[in-house]
Amino acid sequence: MEIYFKYGIIISPFISFISLLYLLFRKFSFGKKSFYSTPRGSKVKGILYAFGKGMLPWEKESVKNHLISYFAGIFYHLGIFSAFLYLLSLIFNLNDPNFLFFLIRISLIAGILSGIGLFLKRVFLKNLRLLSCPDDFFSNLIVDSFLVFSLLDSFRVKIRIFYFLLSMFLFIYIPFGKIKHCFFFFLSRISFGIFFGRRGVLPRKNFE
Fold this sequence. Notes:
The chain contains nine helices and no strands. The protein is an all-alpha fold and about 210 residues long.
């Protein structure tokens, strides 16, 4: 029976990806914004800044005062990446080296602790709680559960079928909730880099 769940996990990301492409198509269906002013900078440099130096905490005013959350987010996403890597190894029967397997477990533990911490912050900080919608909490719990199940399965806890079901649900849910930012993050950073790079605002050294 497990083989059928493996097929489900292989198919569900494709369904999710097609749905995300549809959302992307809808975004571009509104048309392209025309720029009439003369460019003062480089779009390419703006994009490189957006994905490079612009990701560093001291380049983001909103992050400087929340460094703990910033690094928690990094560990959280590293844990998610490790969970997908672990799931991939199960689906394709890959034999991971012991050292790599150890790193995956460490990353999963760090991701779980970070995810729970970010969830509790959203629950107990009034300002953040008021800005949150139900999907903010639900998406966090889904991903946290995915990390926990990945870790438990790595220790041979007998939850494989439930783990696969949760993984399929996660993939299918991505286009419907805030988790879809894992796809649109790249588009938004490209748009950000193009817009401010063209205007000569980025990279910041232009003003130094």
